[in-house]
């Protein structure tokens, strides 16, 4: 089928494109510049230049590309999120999610695109109920201020994708990416923070993270092009784990010294409650619905064995 990717040059877009090509799909990309058009053409991808914040530009580009499926992987995140500037650094991504998504969906609808598969995040649910949540858990719209706008924009994006008449909306809530080209790579921004011992375990470190290897996220996305019901799916590995377990394991894999431990009051006062949420109250996410529906088996089922394989000192 013909697959149009928005975000083909990003952390997931890079491994996704060759997987789509290997699966026999005809791959096109929405890009924002002539330089990016040349780059994707060199990877065997048909470029379509447009401004995603201009509805008419997107509509025309999608009409010319005429894909069966549109894959939305647009984010605008720095290589390392500075927790002190969290709100400001998430703003460009919030804008893509809240403002560009309606343009993509309207263009998909006008061009008769069958399905839109859209990147979301699993770590947007409220810290209540069981330690590992499914997709029906409440979205944390009342999150601490620095994170609240990101949750609101992501929720608006999901609703737009799920409720555009005539287009099947599939929302993939990926866990925290790790692996090549991500912040959690040997040369990634977070790895640098861990090596510099600037990434401590906060309080009891009970916040539960769900990770996904970037190649598993890309493979899941290929499966989501077809079959299954439209809806929301977590795409995470099999082992959600508290910070007090995964962070020392990641430090060991990187050959770094053990992470420091700090009482929650310190980052709460110095940085803000959002970091304390991620470190102490975040819930994990179950991948059962996606596995059951799309027959996905991650090649890296647990970070526990994958970190030592993927990360080096
Ligand atoms: N679930 C997760 O954990 C998660 C999810 C997403 C990202 N991240 C992390 O965030 C970091 C950066 O992510 P990333 O590499 O995907 O890069 P990114 O800078 O967030 O860009 C992603 C894609 O969006 C495109 N894009 C960004 N702004 C755009 C705009 N205004 N108009 C059109 N296209 C736009 C980029 O195109 P250009 O090439 O033109 O910039 C790129 O193709 C990485 O460390 C990654 O691991 C984590």
Automatic annotation (TrEMBL):
Residue intervals of the NAD-dependent epimerase/dehydratase domain: 3-236
Coiled-coil intervals: none
Protein name according to UniProt: NAD(P)-dependent oxidoreductase
